[in-house]
Specification:
It contains eight helices and four strands; from the N terminus they run H-E-E-H-H-H-E-H-H-H-H-E. It is mainly alpha-helical.
Length: 268
C-alpha cells in the first residue's frame, strides 16, 4: 500500500476532504472547550470579587486568594503578613501566585494538547483537515514561550506548599485549639489532588530522573522516577480533577463565608 500524499513544505498529511471521519469527532473538542471556558470564567470572576473568600471562625481560605499579602485582605486571611499596602480593585488579592499558576496550567503538556485541538484546531482531530496553512510547532513566538513550563513548575511547587499550610492552619478551632469540620476535608482533598497533579507534571519527571544515564547508579532517584511516572500516566485525569476540586473548594468556602450554609463540624 502506498503512503498517503504529504505536503512537502509542512510535512503534514494532505487531506482534500474536510474530514474522513464518520463519527461525531467534534464532541470531545466541544466538551473540552466548554469545560475549560467554564473554569476560566468562574475563576476569573471569583478572583476579582473580593467577597466571601475567608471564614474567620475556622480559618478557611479559598485557594483563589492564597497567599493574601496586602492590607486589602480581610483580617486573619493574610497567613504570611501584609508586606503590600492597599490594592486597587483591578488587581486580584492573590496577584503573586495567580500569574504563575496560570502560566503553569497554560504551558502544561496536557493543556497544550487540549486547547491546541479544541480551541486552535491544530489539529482538531485525527483524519480532519487542518485549518491552518502552515505548521511551525513551538519554535517561534508566541508558542516558543511554552518552554518556560519547567520554570513555572518550580513556582507551582512553592504555591502547593503554601496551599498545604493553609489547609493545616484550618485545623485550628474557634478558640485556637484543634478543630475539624467538613471544610477541612474539602481543603485537604484539594491539596492532595493539587500535589498529585503537580508531581505528575512532565517537568517533575524530568527533574527527578530525566538526565540520568545509568539508573542502576542512582537507585533512590530511579525509585522516585518510577513513582512519578505512574502519576504522569494519569496527568490528563489529574488535570481535570484539580479544576473540579479548585471550584468545589472555592464554592464551599464562599457558601460558608457568606452564611449561605453552615460548616458541618466534627470537633470544635
Amino acid at each position: 500500500m502506498s503512503a498517503p500524499a504529504t505536503n512537502a513544505a509542512s510535512g503534514r498529511a494532505r487531506i482534500t476532504a474536510r474530514t474522513l471521519r464518520t463519527d461525531r469527532w467534534w464532541v470531545p473538542p466541544l466538551f473540552t472547550t466548554l469545560g475549560l471556558a467554564t473554569f476560566v470564567i468562574y475563576a476569573g470572576i471569583r478572583s476579582f470579587v473580593r467577597t466571601a473568600y475567608y471564614v474567620p471562625e475556622y480559618h478557611y481560605l479559598t485557594p483563589f486568594y492564597s497567599p493574601c499579602l496586602s492590607d486589602s485582605c480581610v483580617p486573619g486571611s493574610a497567613h504570611f503578613g501584609t508586606p503590600f499596602g492597599e490594592l486597587p480593585g483591578w488587581i486580584p488579592l492573590a496577584f503573586l501566585s495567580l500569574p504563575f499558576l496560570l502560566g503553569f496550567r497554560l504551558t502544561c503538556y496536557y493543556y497544550r494538547k487540549a486547547y491546541y485541538r479544541s480551541v486552535w484546531f491544530s489539529p482538531p482531530a485525527c483524519a480532519v483537515a487542518e485549518r491552518h496553512g502552515k505548521y511551525t510547532g513551538e519554535t517561534r513566538l508566541p508558542l516558543i514561550l511554552q518552554n518556560a513550563h519547567r520554570y513555572f513548575f518550580y513556582v507551582a511547587v512553592l504555591i502547593s506548599v503554601i496551599n498545604t499550610y493553609d489547609a493545616i492552619v484550618a485545623f485550628h478551632g474557634k478558640t485556637g485549639g484543634f478543630g475539624f469540620g467538613l471544610g477541612n476535608l474539602v481543603l485537604l482533598g484539594n491539596v492532595v489532588m493539587l500535589w498529585a497533579y503537580t508531581l505528575s507534571c512532565h517537568s517533575c519527571r524530568h527533574v527527578i530522573g530525566g538526565r540520568l544515564k545509568h539508573f542502576s547508579r542512582h537507585p533512590v532517584r530511579y525509585r522516585l522516577w518510577t513513582q512519578v511516572t505512574k502519576l504522569n500516566n494519569r496527568h490528563m485525569l489529574l488535570a481535570w480533577i484539580t479544576l473540579g476540586t479548585l471550584v468545589v473548594t472555592d464554592l464551599y468556602v464562599m457558601l460558608v463565608a457568606s452564611g449561605a450554609i453552615p460548616d458541618l463540624r466534627f470537633v470544635d
